[in-house]
Write a structure and sequence with these properties.
Radius of gyration: 21 Å
Keywords: 4Fe-4S, Cytoplasm, Disulfide bond, Iron, Iron-sulfur, Metal-binding, Methyltransferase, rRNA processing, S-adenosyl-L-methionine, Transferase, tRNA processing
Protein name: Dual-specificity RNA methyltransferase RlmN
Family: Belongs to the radical SAM superfamily. RlmN family.
Mean pLDDT: 88
Bound molecules: S-adenosyl-L-homocysteine, iron/sulfur cluster
Subcellular location: Cytoplasm
Cofactor: [4Fe-4S] cluster
CATH architecture of the largest domain: Alpha-Beta Barrel
Number of helices: 13
Shape: elongated
Length: 379
């Protein structure tokens, strides 16, 4: 979806921020310009973080003036920005209707990787029983400009970045708020911009989409892009998964794993699916669950990420003890799987954010689980 606002002359301004290369080329053709202008303007927007046509000095003055009449580069407003003592950075962004989304940039301990966790919707309709976003219900899809706008804000914070050797964002995971495959038409152009050399130039291994299992859209995604895929499994039998992830009643585990195999068959051979498994005390953290999980995944090239449940008010679930989490990890190890436990980071800015931005307080819990779930081994 292309977003527009009303221009002073009564027309509408096209927001160029969210346009993929094809869409940008079509835009320039539509205003009687050559296609190559698209890559010039994309570099200004995404490489330099520029939102002012006047500063785009390799365009003629006449074209700059024309662009100012018909277009704009409008990113989300930064409501809060903070850096935690461990280097995790967080932004609370205001999007078009006054809703807020959070974006978190997590540096890896070795300093080489900086992973940005990006949201795709405000709220979520899928109502997973252990997820605070699900509990808020669905408010709306983010536009492509609002999705890529999160990468744009985080990248801009690193200053001008013609220098690709020192990028502020090296990896993106679509693991923020919302189910990305239920906002396919906006998520795909935004991901194309993440991959495009005139956009953020990230390799497809460094861009990960996380889904709770919208099977037909996994197939569709595989036909269009081959980014890394993470699947939120959380249970190895349908009875339990129906309870945790209600979408399982529509697309059960077998159907989902078959879709994963089809996805891998379309990608290059070395790729794997990341299986996300949120460990919930006494619900899915027992030996029998580890055994079922190991058996279930036997045929699928995959790696498992264990995410200790992050409690929130009235969730009705508890986080397993550290010992239990490690026992579960050990059981998986004995069954042939190395499954990293995703650790919590950036807590001090979460608290700060909760205090500073009272209106988004109910969403700040999500920050913790972002942090836990996104340190994927995507190098
Ligand atoms: N909707 C997508 C992507 C966003 S959720 C999905 O479900 O995959 C990102 C990850 O955080 C998912 O694996 C999700 O199951 C997990 N998650 C949600 N709530 C959590 C919580 N309270 N504690 C730990 N992980 C949680
Ligand atoms: Fe939506 Fe993902 Fe939360 Fe489920 S876990 S409610 S799919 S955001």
């Amino acid at each position: 979806m292309t977003s527009t606002t009303r221009a002073p002359n009564g027309g509408t301004l096209t927001n160029l921020l969210g346009l993929s290369r094809e869409q940008m080329e079509a835009f320039f053709l539509s205003i009687g310009e050559k296609k190559f202008r698209a890559s010039q303007v994309m570099k200004w927007i995404h490489h330099d973080g520029c939102d002012d046509f006047e500063a785009m000095t390799n365009l003629s003055k006449a074209l700059r003036a024309r662009l100012a009449e018909v277009a704009e580069v409008r990113g989300p407003g930064v409501v809060y920005e903070g850096t935690s003592s461990d280097g995790t950075r967080k932004w609370v962004l205001e999007v078009e209707d006054g809703s807020y989304v959070e974006t978190v940039l997590i540096p890896a301990e070795n300093g080489h990787r900086r992973t940005l966790c990006v949201s795709s919707q405000v709220g979520c309709s899928l109502d997973c029983s252990f997820c605070s976003t699900g509990k808020q219900g669905f408010q709306r899809n983010l536009t492509a400009a609002e999705i890529i706008g999160q990468v744009w804000v985080a990248s801009r914070s690193g200053g001008p970045r013609r220098d690709t050797a020192n990028r502020p964002v090296t990896n993106v995971v679509m693991m923020g708020m919302g189910e990305p495959l239920l906002n396919y038409d906006n998520v795909v152009p935004a991901m194309k911009l993440m991959l495009d050399d005139n956009g953020y130039g990230l390799s497809k291994r460094r861009v990960t989409l996380s889904t709770s299992g919208v099977v037909p859209m996994i197939d569709k995604l595989g036909d269009e892009l081959d980014v890394s895929l993470a699947v939120s499994l959380h249970a190895a039998n349908d009875e339990l998964r129906n309870e945790l992830v209600p979408l399982n009643r529509k697309y059960n585990i077998r159907t989902l794993l078959d879709a994963c195999q089809r996805y891998l068959a379309k990608c290059d051979a070395a790729r794997m699916i990341t299986i996300e498994y949120t460990l919930i005390k006494d619900v899915n953290d027992q030996r029998q669950h580890a055994e079922q999980l190991a058996e279930l995944l036997r045929e699928l090239p995959c790696k498992i990420n264990l995410i200790p449940f992050n409690p929130f008010l009235h969730s009705g679930y508890e986080k397993p003890s550290r010992n239990q989490t490690m026992r579960f990890q050990q059981w998986l190890y004995e069954l042939g799987y190395t499954a990293p436990i995703r650790s919590t980071r950036g807590d001090d800015i979460d608290a700060a954010c909760g205090q500073l931005v009272g209106r988004v307080k109910d969403r700040t819990r999500r920050h913790e689980r972002y942090i836990q779930s996104i340190q994927l081994d995507a190098d």
